[in-house]
Design a protein that fits this description.
Blueprint lengths: L32 H15 L2 H20 L10 H5 L9 H4 L3 H8 L15 H13 L18 H7 L18 E4 L13 E6 L5 E6 L3 E6 L7 E6 L7 E5 L4 E5 L4 E6 L4 E6 L10 E3 L5 E5 L4 E6 L5 E6 L4 E6 L5 E6 L3 E6 L4 E7 L6 E6 L5 E6 L4 E5 H6 L7 E3 L8 E4 L5 E5 L7 E5 L4 E2 L13 E6 L5 E6 L4 E6 L6
Antiparallel strand pairs: 1-28, 2-3, 3-4, 4-5, 6-7, 7-8, 8-9, 10-11, 11-12, 12-13, 14-15, 15-16, 16-17, 18-19, 19-20, 20-21, 22-23, 23-24, 24-25, 26-27, 27-28
Length: 495
């Protein structure tokens, strides 16, 4: 059988039917010289003429401004007068007011159940309003019962009801889920610095990053997240790079290894210089620079810490602790130096006086591996070979020999390889090289890790080093297969 046509047929409306629909009211009066003269005379009687009226209006504005400047917070004030005022519609269409339901239905050729709001004598605008309210509810900005508050009747409320998303105000980083994006690998042009990537350093002022590793190759890249073009590359023969840092405001880079000399690379002239280490210092695998880039502190043998000047690379002091130094970090002011050890004890030196001022025991730590202090000088993170990271308040570690951690982070199960705070001290990155994708980003404020990082499809590999860009917009992860993965963090703007 042929398929029946199920289209609804509408009866045609006879053209000779006339509807008594009220004509729109004339909103504008034609120009009439006599009417205009009467209006001007009335204004003169009421307001004293145009000039007098403008003068009185200016005086009223001044009085309102003076009264507003003295308004207090509102606590204890009587606001019953303002609250009693009802809100009125901002606009009213006279044309809609005269159309009844019956007239509209006949014009549209439709039928509705009779009675209630569908009554043919009811206003058609009331019917439409009832249907919209039943389906969508009354928007908060359109409610006549709502009292006016500083946040009400705002443009944001209207935009949200029309499908727009309210723009978030910048503030503190939220916990739970992190907004990030994987971009092109930082060293994608070469992948020649590995296999072990031991340094991924961001320049303090320019959008440039230094990548170095076991191959002895150090490369500078332009950081943009799209191309990450290679700027310059240097090969240091028989010199596997274990550590690299920018000094002197980013004009120079220092590269250390397991041999008795270091290399200095001048970024302005693109020249490298071989510098022998001071007597007694046979390696420079672990070192940190002071916040002002004037000094370099390197871990030596038998618990020694050697302080070199960044300008001449000469040794100016030697510090000592009881056990092997496993990690070093300066505080943001640069007057204190923290050193972790292979027995779980942390030593604090005053570098101005070159002496130990305090020691404390890292809770539950059998062998320390890493240290990091926040730029706010509020938090100190200590990592161990057991995969535990203790987060301390700096005031607690300076005042107690057995401080209680503010938070113990146990999300990783193998030895902690690297710890880094971002520039705002809101994120602590922790990594372990022993297991693939063994990385966590910890939200310091809430004491929880971001549950969506790393993502399930991440290919970070065995992460050996992690670092943030100066403003926290980028985070880099260097692994032991010549790759430096790069991510952007949406909350932090810029480089």
């Amino acid at each position: 059988m042929p398929k029946q046509n199920r289209k609804r047929r509408h009866e045609t409306i006879a053209s000779d039917i006339e509807y008594e629909i009220d004509a729109p009211k004339n909103k504008f009066r034609p120009f009439d010289e006599e009417a205009q003269a009467e209006e001007e005379q009335l204004n003169k009687i009421l307001f004293g003429g145009a000039s007098s009226f403008l003068k009185s209006l200016e005086e009223a504005e001044q009085e309102v401004g003076a009264s507003c400047s003295n308004v207090d917070s509102g606590v204890g004030e009587d606001t019953s007068d303002s609250d009693s005022k009802e809100r009125t519609p901002a606009w009213f269409d006279d044309d809609d007011d005269g159309i009844e339901v019956g007239q509209a239905l006949e014009a549209q050729g439709r039928k509705l159940p009779s009675g209630g709001v569908n009554s043919r004598k009811n206003k058609y605008s009331s019917l439409l309003k009832h249907k919209f309210t039943a389906a969508m509810g009354t928007p908060s900005w359109a409610s006549l019962d709502k009292r006016k508050t500083p946040d009400s009747d705002s443009e944001d409320e209207i935009l949200r009801s029309c499908g727009f998303i309210r723009k978030k105000t910048e503030g503190q980083l939220a916990s739970g889920l992190l907004e990030f994006k994987k971009v092109k690998d930082l060293n994608s042009e070469t992948y020649s610095e590995g296999p072990f990537i031991n340094a991924a350093e961001f320049h303090p002022s320019s959008r440039v990053a230094l990548v170095a590793g076991h191959s002895g190759v150090a490369t500078l890249y332009a950081v943009d997240g799209r191309r990450n073009n290679k700027l310059h590359s240097v090969l240091f023969q028989n010199f596997p790079i274990f550590c690299a840092k920018f000094i002197l405001n980013g004009n120079e880079a220092i590269l250390g290894s397991r041999v008795n000399h270091i290399f200095s690379y001048d970024l302005m002239s693109a020249k490298s210089t071989r510098i022998p280490l001071p007597p007694g210092l046979t390696r420079f695998k672990k070192f940190v620079t002071s916040p002002d880039s004037k000094f370099i502190a390197g871990a030596g043998k038998w618990g020694e810490v050697h302080i070199l000047t960044a300008a001449s690379k000469e040794r100016v002091a030697t510090l000592k602790q009881n056990n092997e130094v496993t990690a070093l970090t300066y505080n943001p002011r640069g007057n204190l130096l923290y050193g972790h050890s292979d027995c779980g004890e942390v030593t604090i030196w005053d570098v101005n006086m070159n002496k130990v001022i305090h020691k404390f025991t890292d809770e539950g730590c059998l062998q320390g591996t890493t240290l990091s202090i926040s730029s706010s000088n509020q938090f100190l993170a200590a990592g161990s070979a057991q995969g535990v990271v203790n987060l301390y308040n700096v005031d607690d570690v300076l005042s107690s020999k057995v401080p209680k951690p503010r938070k113990t982070i146990m999300n990783l199960t193998t030895s902690i390889t690297d710890l880094k705070f971002n520039s705002s001290s809101e994120i602590l990155a922790l990594s372990s090289v022993d297991i693939q994708n063994s990385v966590k980003l910890f939200h310091v404020g809430s004491g929880t890790v971001f549950s969506n990082f790393p993502p399930f499809d991440a290919k970070l590999g065995h992460v050996n080093v992690v670092n943030f860009s100066p403003n926290g917009g980028y985070v880099a992860f260097g692994n032991k297969k010549s790759t430096v993965s790069l991510y952007t963090l949406k909350h932090f703007k810029g480089y």
